[in-house]
Amino acid sequence: MGTLLDTTVFVCMERELRRLPTDRAMSEIARRLARELGVHEETGIAAITASELLRGVHRATAEHRPRRAAFVESVLEAFPPIAFDLACARAHALLWASLVSAGADIGPHDRLVASTAIASGWRVATNKVRHFTQVMGLEVVEPNLAA
């Protein structure tokens, strides 16, 4: 099993570690994730997570953009995005139909994250646990990444 890291994990870490140089921030993130998930846990991000992180770069002020861009590029290098393929599309269609029928839709981006995890046989690490636990059969963890 592996763990798909939701955007919220990186947003929180970026805020907490913003005063560190990017390479030290990434080392600290790796250390904390190993502590929480295990040193041998395979990790990655959904393709939509890459898009959400890159959107944050484009929305940053001119003052903060270089730092955020360096952080996001380091994340993309360290946590390879998993492509949204046909298996993900099948999982997404079923998930979407199920959630809508239950009146519990979680939103398009989170559906993509959840369906990528389901298709991969992975769990999701997020700070929006209550949100993702609406997805039947998806293991959800909230990593405590505080220092």
Q: So what's the overall shape?
A: globular
The CATH topology comes to Rossmann fold
How confident overall, as mean pLDDT?
95
Quote the distance from N terminus to C terminus.
26 Å
Question: Briefly, what is this?
Answer:
By secondary structure, this protein is of the alpha/beta class.
Describe the structure.
There is one protein chain. The protein is α/β, with parallel strands linked by helices. It has one domain: Rossmann fold. The chain has seven helices and five strands, in the order βααβααβααβαβ. Strands 3-2-1-4-5 form a five-stranded parallel beta sheet. β4, α7 (129-132) and β5 (140-141) form a beta-alpha-beta unit. The longest helix has 17 residues, at 86-102. The two termini are 26 Å apart. The mean pLDDT is 95.
Question: Key terms for this structure?
Answer:
alpha/beta, Rossmann fold, 7 helices, 147 residues, five-stranded parallel sheet
Secondary structure: elements and pairs:
Blueprint: E1 2-5, H1 7-17, H2 22-37, E2 42-46, H3 47-59, H4 65-78, E3 81-82, H5 86-102, H6 108-120, E4 123-125, H7 129-132, E5 140-141
Parallel strand pairs: 1-2, 1-4, 2-3, 4-5
